[in-house]
Structure formats: C-alpha cells, structure tokens
Model the fold of this input.
Amino acid sequence: MVRYMLKRLASLCISLAVASLVIFTVIEIAPGDPASFMLGINAQPETLAALRTELGLDASKVERYLSWVGGLLTGDFGISYTYRTPVAGMIAARMWVSLPLAFYALLLSTLIAFPAGVFAAARRGKVGDMGVMGATQLGVAVPNFWFAMMLVLVFSINLRWFAAGGFVGWDKGFWAGVHALTLPAIALALPQAAILARVMRSSLLDVLGEDYMRTARAKGLTTRQTLWRHGLRNALIPVLTIIGLQFSFLLAGSIIIEQVFYLPGLGRLVFQAISARDLIVVESVVMLLVFSVIIVNFLVDLAYAAVDPRLRSRA
Amino acid sequence: MRNNLILGTLLTSIFVFAALISFVWTPFPHTAMDIPNKLQSMGGEHLLGTDHFGRDILSMIMVGARTSIAVALVAVGIGMGLGVPLGLFAAAKHGSLVDEIIMRGNDLVFAFPSLVIAILITAVFGASAINAIIAIGIFNIPVFARISRGAALSLWKRDFILAARVAGKSAARISVEHILPNVTNLLIVQGTIQFSLGILAEAGLSYVGLGAQPPTPSWGRMLADAQTMVTIAPHMALVPGLAIILTVLGLNLMGDGLRDYLDPRLRVTRI
Done:
C-alpha cells in the first residue's frame, strides 16, 4: 500500500508540474503587455518601465514561472492587473460560492442516482427499469443552463419559492446559503445524476452475474441481502471513478450555472477577468480548477485502492 | 433495440436537413430585424415566433443548427484524427515508456474540462467558433485515444494478429491493416456520443459568450438572449432548448442503436 501511494504521489506531482507549465506557457504567448494594457496608450515610458518592474515582468521567463509556482505554493497568487488587489483574496471570496455549489450538486447527484440505479438494476427489463432508463436518456440530453432557466421560470418567477438569482452570503446563516444554492445545485446535478444512475445500474448488473452472487443466493441469503451485502460493495468501484470524474464536470459546470443565477463565484470572476484581459486572474483560476480536479482524482485512486486490494499489489 | 436506431436517426436527420436547407432557404432572412413584430408567440405568421428584435426564430434555429453541427463534427474529427493514432501507437508499444507517457498525457488533458480549455484559449486568442472547436476537439483526443488503446490491447492478444506478426508484418502495418478495421465499429459509436456531447458543449460555450460571435446564430446564444426575456417570452427559451435536447437525444439514441446493431457485445464507456 505504501509503495502504491508513493507511486501515485509521484505521478500527482508530475501532473501538477506539467499542468502548471502548460497554463503558464499558454498565458505567456498571449499577445499584449499587461503593463501597457493597465496604463493605456498614453503612458510615459518611465512609468511603464516602473510598473513592469513592480509586476515582475522584467524577469526572465524561467524566473517568472518559478516565482509564480512558488507563489501558488505559499498562497501568493500575485496582484490583479485591473483591480490592483491580491488575486488570492479575490479567489478565496469566490471559492466559497463555487466549491459548496459543486459539492452540493455532487451530493444531490449521488442521492438521486444511487436509488435510481439500484431500482433499475433490481427490475431489469421491467417497466420500472425502462422508465428510469428513459428518464436518464432525457437527463443527459438536457443542457444544464437551460434546465436552470426553466427552474427559475417555474420555482422563482411563478411559485416564488426561491430567489431568481444572487447570493445572500454565508454570514446570513448556513441554511440561507444552502437555500440560495438549491436551484443551481439541482440544475447542475440532474444531467450528472442521469449518467451516474446508468453507471450504477450497469455496474450492478455486471456484479449480479458473478458466481459469488449465485453462491450467496445458494447459501440461503435473500435477494435483498445478496444485493446489499455483496452486490453493492463490488458495484461501487466503477461508480467511484465516475464520481471523481463528475467533480471536475460539476466544478466547470458551476462556472456556467453561475451566469444563469448571477452567483458571485469563480465563473463570474473568470469572465470579468477575460473581458478585462486580467490574465493573471484567469491563469490562477484555471490553475486552481485543474489543481482541484487532479487532487480529487488522486483521492479517488486512493479510495479505489482501499476498496479493491488487487489494485494495490498491481502497482 | 432497433427502435432506438430508427428514432435516433430520424431525430438527427431532421436537424441535419434543417441545417442543409438553411443554406438555400429559410422562412425569413435570419438576421432581418422587424421591431413592430417583436416577441410574437408561436403559431402565427412566424411559426416558432420572433425574438426581441423581431427576428424569425425558426430561421435562426435552422442556421444555428449549422453552427452546432459544424463545431461538433469538426471537434469529433480532431479527436479521432489525433486520438486514434495515439491510442493504436500506445497499444502497439504496450508497457513501454511511450505508452506510459501517452496515457499520463491523456489523464492530464482530462484534468482540463473542455470549458476550462475554452476559457484559457479565449483569454488568450479571443472568443470565436474556431476556438470553441479547438477547445472541444482537444478534450475529445484522450477519449478516442483511451478507447482505441483499450480495444487494440485485447486484439493484440488474438491469434490472427500473432499470425500477422509471424508473417513478418511491422507493428505499424498490423495496426493499420488489422487493428483499425476491427475497432471501427467502436469508434463510430463513440463518435456519435462525442458528437452529442460536442453539441452540448458548443451550446454551453456560446451561452457564456465563448463560442460563435454575432451575427452568426447559435443555439447557446439564443438562450443567453432569451434569459432576460424569459418572463414575457418563454418561447424564446423553449425553442432553442428543445432543439438542443432533441438533437442530443437523437444522437444518443442513434449511438445506442448503432452499438446494438453493429455488435451486441460492444460496451462503450459513456463519460
């Protein structure tokens, strides 16, 4: 297990290093000089030079990459080109909207998908199964931002159960925050729940065909007992992978959903930064998103090894 | 199920035809504004109503289908064109350093969801349909690489490949002449699924303004326009939404149907 973890840890570090290098390079080749963009076309050469030094744009590319990565590690993301405030602070404030939203959606997606998948697998080929599969077929076809608009139309504008947009802030209390994130989370969770339910069903069906399931039945366990004691645990392995993958889709998807609900999250920040050509903010947000995805997939790999001992020895 | 294939193909063809017909005919010019007739509901002179500028929604949907299909199709082309050779190459060199590098590279691209790639590209080069294609296309590469590698690996163990090796064929020739034809079905099915995901991704990107730019109509931007009008003109949001859902549903049903039709044993991973 230790060897397996070390190996995964090494590949985690390489992934992060390569990802940061790719992002840095792409932002580097962007046309235009941030300093002259900030000061406008009438800037004096001396002011420009001073600002370039202040922003650290004078240093060589290697130095700048190293200082950027060093800054990321110590929580110093640099100074925003347009707002002149630390990027870390801007991101930290927005993270408290985007991350809870993604986790909330993941929770909802899992809560919907598990029972639906188990139900469909238990009733394979019957009306219930066909109903669930039909619903999931529709679920994966619905764009989440369109679904979000429909939710707003029904639950905010007609029924007035939820606010149509905006975020009250966590200081108004935990449940007020949860309430504000409920519609966005449902909109995000639905398509992912459809995918997860399909994976759950097919994974469970694979397991149900295994010999040990017949053995469990033969030794006298009821269908329900075999399903819960032996079926689910083994069926969970592929489901775990998909949950890990879904986290990245949910985090990226929250960027779009935030536009529908006018939520002050990372998405709003990144789109404002793009239109203001505030590349240092874009760079940091993108790195942060990629970082979260890589870390989550690493954790899923570890969970995988904990569930399935065969994976440990294979490494 | 045969029904899936028929229904899916039917739905898909409707939108492909609508896109093709739009090159020669649309009910109204899709950019023509007609303010006195703005926000008309469905069923009048304008079959699917008009938007806040009085533009005919049916015409915009038809021309928008062109954008969606073109972006998704080229993105699948990029994914297949680069992903399949990479996957086959990795499988031929299974267990080597090259294989490891290709697969790790795949994992890395997977860590950049297409939206994040699009954000990075637009931040640097600006928003356009071409950049949307690249963003979706790059994300398709690891999907095709992974699936063709997986399928090729199991083929490499088969007797007829062994026979080809004994006959002195090189790994490259075996990959092209024996492996590729045997994974084609799988690629067609996965291609259909990536096509439908591409339509969804294009809609999402143009909704947030990272896709095709005005005046090129796109379903995603029609939805962005509809958002502020949703209380007074819900049809502006309903029509493009249904267009996306039906196209994606059609492609998915077609993919499922094709999979069962081409080979009932095939199992395609759907991500």
Remarks:
- Chain B has one domain: 1-30+65-264.
- Residues 1-30+65-264 of chain B form a domain with the MetI-like fold fold (CATH 1.10.3720.10).
